[in-house]
Design a protein that fits this description.
The protein starts with a helix and ends in a 25-residue tail after the last helix. The chain is mainly alpha-helical. The chain has six helices and no strands. It has one domain (2-71). Helices cover 49% and strands 0% of the residues.
Length: 96
Amino acid sequence: MAGMDAFVEMSAGLTGFTAEELRSTGLVELYAGLAADASPAELIELWYTGVWRGEIPSARAYAEGLAWKAIGVAAPGTAAPGFGSWERRPPRGSQR
């Protein structure tokens, strides 16, 4: 766990978010595994965008991207009414 704590502390220093905020994303283990040989710039990009070397490693990575938290909004398509809601008709009698 000492290695994971060091990764979180380094990430906190690079991103400006606290260790607790980074842990609350639920992505520390995934990111630590991906970024073992990452440059600081790659690690910052991973935390802020949820993208690792051109790929999104999980849906949660996109939703928990620090860029969204920094501007105070939920990632598009991740909060109510939710992804795909535009293709369902509203219930009968609902107001538009």
